[in-house]
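Researcher: I'd like a structural prediction for the single chain below. Treat it as a standalone chain; there are no partners to consider.
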Amino acid sequence: MQPDPQQVQAAMEAMRADAAMWQDMAAEMRAAAQVADRLDLGRLQFSLIADELGMTDLYQQVQERLVGLIGQGADTFEATASALTTAAAGYDADERASVHRMKNIY
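Model: Treating it as a single chain, here is the predicted structure.
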């Protein structure tokens, strides 16, 4: 059974809404990465012994890794949003072309 035009339209709108949600989440992830990047702890925040044992360097490595992973998550969210937007546009173009062909048949 073929979907009717309203069902096709609803599906395309749902894809666009989902794309917007993924884009919003990507923006939130980017904001989280900026916050994580500013959470610097240095020698003053660690004790002398902890600093000498490498905790300051270890913290900075973990922080850099976390910021990178959050950024990768944001990239993935943006790619998902882009794929959904592209799919919706493709379905929209296919639907318009199909309707146009059907009207020219009669």
